[in-house]
Design a protein that fits this description.
Shape: globular
Number of domains: 5
CATH architecture of the largest domain: 2-Layer Sandwich
Largest sheet: 7 strands, antiparallel
Number of strands: 18
Structural class: alpha+beta
Strand content: 15-25%
Organism: Polynucleobacter cosmopolitanus
Cofactor: FAD
Domain FAD-binding PCMH-type: 39-220
Keywords: FAD, Flavoprotein
GO molecular function: catalytic activity; FAD binding
CATH topology of the largest domain: Uridine Diphospho-n-acetylenolpyruvylglucosamine Reductase, domain 3
Distance between the termini: 25 Å
Radius of gyration: 23 Å
Number of helices: 16
Strand order of the largest sheet: 15-12-14-13-17-18-16
Length: 475
Amino acid sequence: MSLNDQELIAGFEKIIGKTQVITAPDDLEPYLVDWRKRYRGQAIAALRPGNTQEVSEIVKLCAANLIAIVPQGGNTGMCGGATPNSTGRQVVISLNRMNQVRAIDTSNQTITVEAGMILQSLQEAATAADRYFPLSLGAEGSCTIGGNLSTNAGGTSVLRYGNARELCLGLEVVMPNGEILNSLRGLRKDNTGYDLRDLFIGAEGSLGLITAAVMKLFPRPVANWTALVAVPHADAAVELLNRFQAGASAQLTGFEMMSDESLALLKHYYPALASPLSGPNAYEVLVEISDYESEEHAMQLMESILEGALESGCASDAAIASNLAQARKFWDMREHVPLAQADDGPNIKHDVSLPISAIPSFIATCNDMLRAKYPGVRVINYGHLGDGNLHYNIAGPSSAQTEEFFTSKSKEIQALVYAEVEKLNGSISAEHGVGQQKVAYLKGHRGEVALGVMQAIKHALDPHNLMNPGKVIAS
């Protein structure tokens, strides 16, 4: 016979202690709602284990009583992937107490960390060891490495270093039956059967609960040079990217694009971060070069490529950061665009990935289509042009209309945008994951065969559908 809620709570308290079992409504509330306030659920409790063995015991107790589990890191997700459903028959497992560095191997260029470690803390631990960890996101002060891996997070350095998947060498995972899969090997070559690591990265906790990871480290660059460049249209931005890739190759570590409407929104809500370039400009591009030779070499490389771009007309203006503070301001501009959106009100978000060559066509087609169908609509288009990832977001004609526009138009606008993504062989999720927001679109996007394979894997590992049910795939 299954335990009732009070008996379950008593069982959880025995495993992790009474203070780490959150049930009081006010204390529980932050675990029940996503940071955008778009998804809300109910839970028996929020549980805060302190080590992997405690996670294992919690999962075993849940499995024995068919209680579903929602893993939660920093709760910074965009698609409701870490939010419980409305049944009240789930528990949230928060790993924010599991935040330690387990090992650093500078010769092997690896760091082993627990899943609840804040991304910024991992970056700082790498710096303290005279190494560099390149994953960088706007939410890096609150998101966790477990959450980054569960969504295969991207960020601003994917162009050079890859997504979270490419930065991970091994995982420790608590399986749906409570068993612990330990693959914390810092190996770059290990061809011994199926790559189980990649099953769990990007699975959003639907196959198991990541508790620790071995991540790659890199030597620290000698120099970083950053520039803000105005371009007349999206095709010019792609040409500028081609010039930097040809001229800088692997030294090109960042290439971010912001549209004029993104910059206008930024200037309105954060006037101190207004662009220093004369404008308005159709797009402004943030470029970063990282160099392992010298400051002078990096500066000369940046100036040489920009000079050619200005002469060709693919760039109309440029400002090279003259010091660290100015470079930080350029990056703050990019990172505050989504914050300005949040200040403005709800917006219809699209985290899409496209072949870089198709991006200008996608933007032109979608812009024309949406502006014709919804007069006055604002297109807040920005993102990681260097890896083909756009945050193509749609807001109502004014901040006063955002809530009504979001509520009434979200589904039809998403359908229009996703249809164009499919025509161009893109993806409806580049780095935010699927969560619960995009489950309904997955069959049409991936196809029946791919979805069937994913469902078979889910059923094999989690036959009772206890791990984050309703996320990624409907099963």
